[in-house]
Amino acid sequence: MGYEACGTLQSQRATASTAPAVVRGRDHSMHVEVIVEPGGKGIVTGYPTNRPRNP
């Protein structure tokens, strides 16, 4: 099963190569932020940033 990226992605990486990267992007109208393990080995977590929090 494959996934296709939609929109643009921006990455902010700390100076240490062992630190996780923060990737921000958009999937249709939903803005998402994803924390990625060093070297792109996997996703730590991801969440929408333009939606109300789920109580």
TrEMBL record:
Organism: Chondromyces apiculatus DSM 436
Composition bias, Polar residues: 8-18
Region (Disordered): 1-22
Protein name: Bacterial EndoU nuclease domain-containing protein
